[in-house]
Amino acid sequence: MTDAPIYDLLLKNGHTIDPLNHIDGPMDVAIAGGRIAAVERDINPALAAQVVDVSGHYVTPGLIDIHVHVYHTREPEGLSVMADSHSFRSGVTTVVDTGTAGARHFLHFKRTVIDLARTRIFAFINIVDQGMIGDFEQDVRTMDPELAASVVLAYPEICVGIKTAHYWTRLPWDAEHPPWAAVDRAIAAGNLCQKPVMVDFWPRPPERSYEELILEKMRPGDIHTHVFAQQFPVLDEAGRPNRILFEARERGVIFDVGHGAGSFWFRNAVPAIQQGFYPDSISTDLHVRNVHGAVVDMLTTMSKILNMGMSLADVIQRSTLAPAREIGHPELGHLSVGAEADVAVLKLLTGEFGFIDCGRARMMGDRKLECAMTIRAGEIVYDPGGLSMPLWTEAPPEYWELRM
After folding, report:
1. Among 2-11, 125-134, 360-369, which stretch is predicted with the lowest mean pLDDT?
2. Taking burial as the number of CB atoms within 10 A of a residue's CB, which of 20, 125, 139, 238 is the most buried?
3. Can you give the pLDDT at residue 302?
4. What are the Amidohydrolase-related domain coordinates in residue numbering (predicted)?
C-alpha cells in the first residue's frame, strides 16, 4: 500500500525566479490545495499526484498587469477587453482595471465582470463618477472626492486606489476648467481613502507642468503611468534621463510603463533605460485599440524592456512583486510557501525579433518571452503545448473511449 501524494502538482526541473525570496536558479515548485507547498532544489516526484517537467522553462509568480481596461459589459463597450481572453495566455493571473469605472458604475462592473472572471481583477476608481471615455470626463462637477473614496472604502478587497486621466488636454483654461482640477480632486480622494492615485497626465506648462506634478502634487506611493509617453520630458537637452525623474522617485513617486496605444515611445524609453532610469513596474494599458497593435500582451511589453537592457530577473520583479506592492497586495507576486499558487511558466526564445512602439517605429531584439503554462490558484488554466498532458500514443484508457 502506497501513501497518498502530499502535493497536487509538481513543476520539476525549471529555472525558478522569485524576487521576494531571492531565488534565481534551478528549483522545483510543489502545489497543494491551491497554494505553494514547497520550493526546493529536488523534490521527490513520487510525492505529487501530477508531475510536469518544465525543463528549459522559467517558473515565476503569476504576472500582475496593473494597467488594463476590462469593463467589457458596459454599453457602449468603449475600450475594454475580456480579461480571461487575454490574461492567462500571457502568464498574467492578476489585472487592475484603471478607471474604466467610476463610482456610478462600479457595482455593475463588479457584478458583471469582476465576480465572474477567473482572472483576479482589482480596480482603480475613476475620480469621474461615470468613469471613461466621454465628454463627461471634462466636467469638474462629476469629480467628487468623497463619492470616489467611499466606493474604495466600501470595497477594500477589490478597490486599490483612485485614477485620473484625460482631463483638458488642449482647450483654453476657463473658470469651469482650472488646470489642476482632476489631479487635485483625485489626490483629495486618495487622502480620504488612504490609497494611491494613478495619474494619466498631459502637461501644459506653465500652468500645468510635469515638474510640478511629480515634484509637488503627487504623494509618496502615487503612480505615474505612461512614463515613456511622448509628452513627457524624460530626457534632458543632453539626452540624459531628466533629473526630476530621480528627484520624484526619491520622494516616493512610482513610475509605471502603461504602454497603451499612444504612450510608449522608443525615443524616450531606450535612452532612459540604457542610462539607468528603469520603470518601477511594467504594465500594458491593454484595450481593444492596442491588443492587435502596439501592445499585444504583457509578455510583448516585458520583452521590449528586456531587449532595452534590463535583466530578466529585474523584468520579472517589475511584473510581479513590484506591482503587487504598489497596489497594496503584498500577499501576491511571489512563490512563498502558503501563498496562493499563481504561477507562470515562461519560455525565453532567442533569435531575431521586431517590436514596435506607439509611433509606428521598430526596434530589433534577440530575446522574446512566451508563455508555456499558467496556473491560477493551483489550477492549470493555460497549457497550449500540452506540457501537463501525455503524448497521445501514451494517453490513458479513457482517452480512447467514445465520448458523448
Report:
1. 2-11
2. 125
3. 98
4. 268-381
